[in-house]
Inverse folding.
Protein backbone atom coordinates (compact mmCIF):
# COMPACT_ATOMS: atom_id res chain seq x y z
CA UNK A 1 0.00 0.00 0.00
CA UNK A 2 2.71 2.46 0.96
CA UNK A 3 4.77 1.98 -2.21
CA UNK A 4 1.77 3.10 -4.29
CA UNK A 5 1.73 6.50 -2.57
CA UNK A 6 3.69 9.61 -3.53
CA UNK A 7 7.24 10.02 -2.28
CA UNK A 8 6.07 12.81 0.05
CA UNK A 9 3.42 10.55 1.55
CA UNK A 10 5.94 7.72 2.01
CA UNK A 11 8.34 10.08 3.78
CA UNK A 12 5.61 11.31 6.10
CA UNK A 13 4.59 7.76 6.99
CA UNK A 14 8.18 6.75 7.66
CA UNK A 15 8.82 9.77 9.84
CA UNK A 16 5.64 9.38 11.88
CA UNK A 17 6.22 5.68 12.49
CA UNK A 18 9.80 6.42 13.54
CA UNK A 19 8.34 8.89 16.05
CA UNK A 20 6.26 6.14 17.64
CA UNK A 21 2.88 6.40 15.91
CA UNK A 22 0.97 3.19 15.20
CA UNK A 23 1.88 2.08 11.64
CA UNK A 24 -1.52 0.87 10.43
CA UNK A 25 -3.27 4.01 11.68
CA UNK A 26 -0.72 6.29 10.01
CA UNK A 27 -0.91 4.46 6.67
CA UNK A 28 -4.71 4.50 6.73
CA UNK A 29 -4.87 8.22 7.49
CA UNK A 30 -2.32 9.25 4.86
CA UNK A 31 -3.72 6.90 2.22
CA UNK A 32 -7.25 8.27 2.62
CA UNK A 33 -6.25 11.93 2.73
CA UNK A 34 -6.27 13.80 -0.57
CA UNK A 35 -4.88 17.28 -0.33
CA UNK A 36 -3.81 20.37 -2.16
CA UNK A 37 -0.15 19.55 -1.69
CA UNK A 38 -0.45 16.83 -4.29
CA UNK A 39 -1.23 19.65 -6.78
CA UNK A 40 -3.77 17.42 -8.47
CA UNK A 41 -6.13 20.24 -9.38
CA UNK A 42 -8.46 19.91 -6.38
CA UNK A 43 -8.67 23.63 -5.67
CA UNK A 44 -11.53 23.82 -3.18
CA UNK A 45 -9.57 24.17 0.04
CA UNK A 46 -10.62 27.02 2.33
CA UNK A 47 -8.61 28.87 4.95
CA UNK A 48 -9.57 28.47 8.62
CA UNK A 49 -11.13 31.58 10.14
CA UNK A 50 -8.29 32.12 12.62
CA UNK A 51 -5.88 32.94 9.75
CA UNK A 52 -8.41 35.14 7.99
CA UNK A 53 -8.99 37.14 11.16
CA UNK A 54 -5.24 37.63 11.65
CA UNK A 55 -4.95 38.84 8.05
CA UNK A 56 -7.82 41.26 8.65
CA UNK A 57 -6.08 42.60 11.78
CA UNK A 58 -2.69 42.86 10.04
CA UNK A 59 -4.02 44.76 7.02
CA UNK A 60 -7.03 46.37 8.82
CA UNK A 61 -9.33 45.17 6.02
CA UNK A 62 -9.67 42.64 3.22
CA UNK A 63 -10.76 44.57 0.15
CA UNK A 64 -10.22 41.85 -2.44
CA UNK A 65 -10.05 38.06 -2.57
CA UNK A 66 -9.21 37.26 -6.20
CA UNK A 67 -9.31 33.44 -5.90
CA UNK A 68 -12.41 32.63 -3.94
CA UNK A 69 -15.90 31.10 -3.88
CA UNK A 70 -19.29 31.77 -2.32
CA UNK A 71 -18.49 29.25 0.42
CA UNK A 72 -15.09 30.74 1.26
CA UNK A 73 -16.66 34.18 1.54
CA UNK A 74 -18.72 33.04 4.51
CA UNK A 75 -15.44 33.50 6.42
CA UNK A 76 -13.31 35.85 4.30
CA UNK A 77 -16.01 38.49 3.76
CA UNK A 78 -13.91 40.49 1.31
CA UNK A 79 -15.31 43.72 -0.10
CA UNK A 80 -14.89 42.25 -3.61
CA UNK A 81 -14.11 38.69 -4.62
CA UNK A 82 -13.71 36.65 -7.77
CA UNK A 83 -14.56 33.00 -8.26
CA UNK A 84 -13.45 30.39 -10.80
CA UNK A 85 -16.30 31.66 -12.98
CA UNK A 86 -15.51 35.40 -12.69
CA UNK A 87 -11.72 34.71 -12.86
CA UNK A 88 -9.56 37.02 -10.77
CA UNK A 89 -6.74 36.65 -13.28
CA UNK A 90 -8.72 38.80 -15.73
CA UNK A 91 -9.33 41.73 -13.36
CA UNK A 92 -7.18 44.48 -11.87
CA UNK A 93 -6.40 43.99 -8.18
CA UNK A 94 -6.65 46.78 -5.63
CA UNK A 95 -6.60 47.69 -1.95
CA UNK A 96 -5.71 45.07 0.63
CA UNK A 97 -5.63 41.63 -0.95
CA UNK A 98 -6.06 38.23 0.68
CA UNK A 99 -4.98 35.33 -1.57
CA UNK A 100 -5.23 31.60 -0.98
CA UNK A 101 -4.62 30.60 -4.61
CA UNK A 102 -5.66 27.39 -6.36
CA UNK A 103 -2.99 24.77 -5.73
CA UNK A 104 -2.82 23.06 -9.11
CA UNK A 105 0.64 23.67 -10.57
CA UNK A 106 -0.59 25.60 -13.60
CA UNK A 107 -2.95 27.90 -11.69
CA UNK A 108 -0.71 28.68 -8.75
CA UNK A 109 2.00 29.82 -11.18
CA UNK A 110 -0.50 32.12 -12.92
CA UNK A 111 -1.71 33.60 -9.64
CA UNK A 112 1.89 34.10 -8.45
CA UNK A 113 2.73 35.97 -11.66
CA UNK A 114 -0.47 38.03 -11.40
CA UNK A 115 0.33 38.99 -7.80
CA UNK A 116 3.79 40.23 -8.78
CA UNK A 117 2.34 42.24 -11.68
CA UNK A 118 -0.38 43.79 -9.48
CA UNK A 119 1.92 44.92 -6.64
CA UNK A 120 2.12 48.37 -8.21
CA UNK A 121 -1.67 48.77 -7.85
CA UNK A 122 -2.39 47.29 -4.43
CA UNK A 123 -1.82 48.63 -0.92
CA UNK A 124 -1.03 45.37 0.88
CA UNK A 125 -1.36 41.66 0.22
CA UNK A 126 -1.14 38.46 2.20
CA UNK A 127 -0.82 35.16 0.37
CA UNK A 128 -1.08 31.69 1.90
CA UNK A 129 0.77 28.97 -0.01
CA UNK A 130 2.63 25.73 0.54
CA UNK A 131 6.26 26.41 1.47
CA UNK A 132 7.35 25.00 -1.87
CA UNK A 133 10.79 26.58 -1.75
CA UNK A 134 12.03 24.42 -4.59
CA UNK A 135 9.61 25.94 -7.13
CA UNK A 136 10.11 28.90 -9.44
CA UNK A 137 6.77 30.48 -8.50
CA UNK A 138 7.67 30.45 -4.78
CA UNK A 139 11.04 32.03 -5.49
CA UNK A 140 9.33 34.82 -7.44
CA UNK A 141 6.83 35.71 -4.74
CA UNK A 142 9.17 35.48 -1.75
CA UNK A 143 11.80 37.72 -3.41
CA UNK A 144 9.29 40.56 -3.81
CA UNK A 145 7.75 40.29 -0.33
CA UNK A 146 8.40 42.31 2.81
CA UNK A 147 7.83 39.59 5.43
CA UNK A 148 6.95 35.94 5.89
CA UNK A 149 5.53 33.67 8.57
CA UNK A 150 6.06 29.91 8.64
CA UNK A 151 3.27 28.51 10.84
CA UNK A 152 4.13 25.98 13.49
CA UNK A 153 2.31 22.83 12.34
CA UNK A 154 0.29 22.41 9.19
CA UNK A 155 -2.72 24.58 8.41
CA UNK A 156 -5.93 22.55 8.62
CA UNK A 157 -7.83 23.67 5.56
CA UNK A 158 -11.51 22.83 5.21
CA UNK A 159 -13.41 21.46 2.25
CA UNK A 160 -16.82 22.39 0.83
CA UNK A 161 -18.39 19.65 2.98
CA UNK A 162 -16.72 21.30 6.04
CA UNK A 163 -14.40 18.36 6.78
CA UNK A 164 -10.77 19.34 7.33
CA UNK A 165 -7.51 18.13 5.84
CA UNK A 166 -3.91 18.89 6.70
CA UNK A 167 -1.29 19.02 3.93
CA UNK A 168 1.82 16.88 3.75
CA UNK A 169 4.01 19.97 3.92
CA UNK A 170 4.07 23.22 5.81
CA UNK A 171 2.77 26.55 4.64
CA UNK A 172 4.10 30.08 4.23
CA UNK A 173 2.10 33.23 4.86
CA UNK A 174 3.75 35.98 2.83
CA UNK A 175 3.21 39.71 3.25
CA UNK A 176 3.55 42.64 0.82
CA UNK A 177 3.21 46.27 1.90
CA UNK A 178 4.55 48.92 4.23
CA UNK A 179 3.28 47.48 7.50
CA UNK A 180 5.56 44.45 7.79
CA UNK A 181 6.18 45.05 11.50
CA UNK A 182 2.45 44.94 12.18
CA UNK A 183 2.19 41.74 10.11
CA UNK A 184 4.96 40.09 12.14
CA UNK A 185 3.50 41.27 15.44
CA UNK A 186 0.13 39.76 14.51
CA UNK A 187 1.29 36.50 12.91
CA UNK A 188 4.12 35.69 15.32
CA UNK A 189 1.48 33.98 17.48
CA UNK A 190 1.22 31.37 14.71
CA UNK A 191 4.86 30.62 13.98
CA UNK A 192 8.30 31.88 13.03
CA UNK A 193 8.25 35.20 11.20
CA UNK A 194 10.94 37.30 9.54
CA UNK A 195 11.40 40.55 7.63
CA UNK A 196 12.56 40.14 4.03
CA UNK A 197 12.69 43.44 2.13
CA UNK A 198 12.15 47.07 3.12
CA UNK A 199 9.55 48.96 1.13
Amino acid sequence: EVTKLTQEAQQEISSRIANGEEPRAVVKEVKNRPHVSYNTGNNEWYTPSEYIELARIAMTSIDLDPASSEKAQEIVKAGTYYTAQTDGLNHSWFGNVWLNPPYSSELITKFADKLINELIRINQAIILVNNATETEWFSKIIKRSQAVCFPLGRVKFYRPDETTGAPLQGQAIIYYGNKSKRFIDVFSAKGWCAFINDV
Observations:
- The radius of gyration is 17 Å.
- Confidence is low (pLDDT under 50) at residues 34-42.
- Residues 105-118 form the longest helix (14 residues).
